[in-house]
Amino acid sequence: xxxxxxxxVVGVGVAGCLAAIARSRAGYAxxxxxxxxxxxxxxxxxxxxxxxxxxxNHSGAEYPFDPQSARDCLDGRIANDRFFPExxxxxxxxxxxxxxxxxxxxxxxxxxxxxxxxxxxxxxxAQRCQxxxxxxxxxxxxxxxxxxxxxxxxxxxAAGFLTPQRGMNPVLVSTVLDWELxxxxxxxxxxxxxxxxxxxxxxxxxxxxxxxxxxxxSVIADQVSLCVATAAFGMARRLNPTLTFxxxxxxxxxxxxxxxxxxxxKNFTCLKLEDSYGGMLSPINEHCAMIYHPPAxxxxxxVMDPETCEFPDEYTHYLTAGHPETExxxxxxxxxxxxxxxELARSEILGAYLKVAINTVAxxxxxxxxxxxxxxxxxxMTVLPKWAMCVVNARNELRxxxxxxxxxxxxxxxxxxxxxxxxxxxxxxxxPAWADSDEACTAxxxxxxxxxxxxxxxxxxxxxxxxxxxx
Length: 471
Ligand SMILES: Cc1cc2nc3c(=O)[nH]c(=O)nc-3n(C[C@H](O)[C@H](O)[C@H](O)COP(=O)(O)OP(=O)(O)OC[C@H]3O[C@@H](n4cnc5c(N)ncnc54)[C@H](O)[C@@H]3O)c2cc1C
Description:
Elements: E1 6-10, H1 14-25, E2 29-33, E3 56-57, H2 67-83, E4 94-100, H3 101-105, H4 110-131, E5 146-148, E6 157-167, H5 170-184, E7 187-189, E8 193-199, E9 205-210, E10 216-221, E11 223-226, H6 231-239, E12 249-259, E13 270-273, E14 279-285, E15 288-292, H7 294-297, E16 298-303, H8 313-321, H9 326-338, E17 349-359, E18 372-376, E19 379-382, H10 390-407, H11 416-423, H12 438-451
Parallel strand pairs: 1-2, 1-11, 2-7, 4-13, 11-19
Antiparallel strand pairs: 3-6, 4-6, 5-6, 8-9, 9-10, 12-15, 12-16, 12-17, 13-14, 14-15, 18-19
Helix pairs in contact: 1-5, 1-10, 1-11, 2-4, 5-12, 10-11
This protein binds flavin-adenine dinucleotide (FAD).
């Protein structure tokens, strides 16, 4: 790099964390501006909003109705496997995708649908492995997707499938990303709410924000990366009023953490398909699980106003004051999932979370990857409909940033490919001292659970896994 540029990343859910890490590794000086503040000393408030309830590192297996989403997710899963350390899985093994018997009985061939999706995944993985042997992160293409004879301890099963999809622990994801941001030397400014961004005559950006002490601050950046989830559309449109987005759906969803007073013998996620027949049991450890039942979880779906790009007023209200049906829907989820998962018989709800999912279609069976937007030269926007695409999108947004630096004469064109490859290399090349101590690792993760407003019990890993942290 001929001249070190200053880049500002706005928002640090998983998209912003990855953008900040990738840009730093590429040699840029990076300032992160994040609205939230840490509640635990010595931590950064990362992934405290939508990213605090994510439990599945998808591989496309959950989209049997949409081959393109399946392929996108598998690409994301390969990139994530090369980036994140084993710790994020907290001892969980591969998720079980389950076709429901009751759905078959009602005349929907969900087993056949899953089987043909397995063919899509196998073929796509084989192609990726052929393109680059380093993509063979799950082993032999013929072995990565297979039907299994049974899923013990689950009711209403017509067929089970084992695929590269894997459950993870969002608190451990934050723990890893916090460490990596520190390794990269990112200037992290928490409690900083960005209020305006303007492109100056010299092509650089004036970023104005309210700082943690309430003062009005600003910084001039060579480039900016907008990673503020739904708020990014409005910010991007203000920077470039000619920018157009696809029709965007914002779906209000509810997801729960529950306790497991009788434990569980499943150290994997059960993703039982589909809609009223379906429900996810995602044990985070033996004490706690995330659960989801689509008809109870899907509260509302609103199309974003294409002109203002504003967040719907009702959502702002529900996210702060709660939705009147939150409790009823939580009970509905738990009651329905008890039909499938016996370990929930005595479970109680630890927390119900309202979140907004983004998509370009109304149908939750079809998931469109929105990709990365070049808003203006030197300004990108990354909105992730799926956590699973985080590393792929970070690489794509860095490519745009590097191309802009090449145009400005700050980076040699010949450097770009090497910088891109280095920017998404594995985390934990330098391992934290606490990685080898169960107690210290759990203490670190507990601090993030507090920041993320999720039950502290999430900080525990499956028994017997505490020592199995590898890089
Ligand atoms: C119920 C539900 C379950 C899901 N489960 C999965 C799953 O299992 N697997 C999967 O792949 N995906 C899942 N997703 C999708 C996943 O949650 C998102 O793709 C991902 O978390 C989005 O991350 P993000 O960084 O874009 O946004 P966020 O995590 O929301 O981060 C945005 C950040 O921007 C900050 N911010 C906002 N405004 C400002 C401002 N003005 N100034 C400064 N900072 C600001 C916020 O504080 C926040 O930290 C799920 C979504 C929902 C709704």
